[in-house]
Recover the amino acids of this structure.
């Protein structure tokens, strides 16, 4: 892969991470003073799970204004806050399913209900992510949207070529 193509692919992955998966990412432990860039827990918490790095990269690539960046940060912080109870609910559903399947004679009806519950929660998370993405796209100019679309198309092509999530990696797709 040519260096320029490799750089574009990496940038695509980073922007996609910032714009499309930020709401489903569980928060990382907050670093204390003296860690990271020497900022305390409150500052690290305000930047979110990726320290704001992915959003900064997306802002640079899409050439967002300061106002757009601030609005985007708020959109994804709100979505992440809304996603947290759903993520916890999904973890609980998955654990219940594992517990049911670990039984000597799993009850098929109970297993089915646990699968349905987990799927419903995943659907809520997907809808939340789509809403946040739509809100983010609404902030963009026509040129920025075209740039994002081209970037995401490159990301999807790369993922398809490599056998994207859900194809043997245990991902949810």
């Amino acid at each position: 892969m040519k260096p320029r193509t490799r750089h574009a692919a990496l940038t695509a992955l980073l922007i996609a991470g910032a714009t499309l998966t930020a709401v489903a990412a569980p928060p990382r432990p907050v670093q204390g003073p003296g860690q990271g860039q020497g900022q305390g827990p409150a500052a690290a918490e305000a930047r979110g799970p990726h320290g704001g790095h992915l959003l900064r990269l997306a802002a640079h690539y899409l050439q967002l204004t300061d106002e757009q960046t601030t609005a985007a940060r708020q959109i994804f912080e709100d979505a992440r806050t809304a996603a947290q109870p759903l993520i916890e609910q999904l973890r609980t559903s998955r654990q219940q399913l594992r517990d049911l399947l670990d039984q000597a004679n799993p009850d098929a009806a109970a297993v089915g209900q646990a699968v349905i519950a987990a799927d419903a929660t995943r659907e809520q998370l997907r809808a939340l992510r789509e809403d946040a993405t739509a809100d983010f796209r609404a902030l963009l100019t026509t040129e920025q949207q075209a740039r994002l679309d081209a970037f995401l198309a490159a990301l999807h092509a790369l993922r398809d070529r490599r056998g994207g999530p859900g194809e043997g990696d245990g991902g949810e797709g």
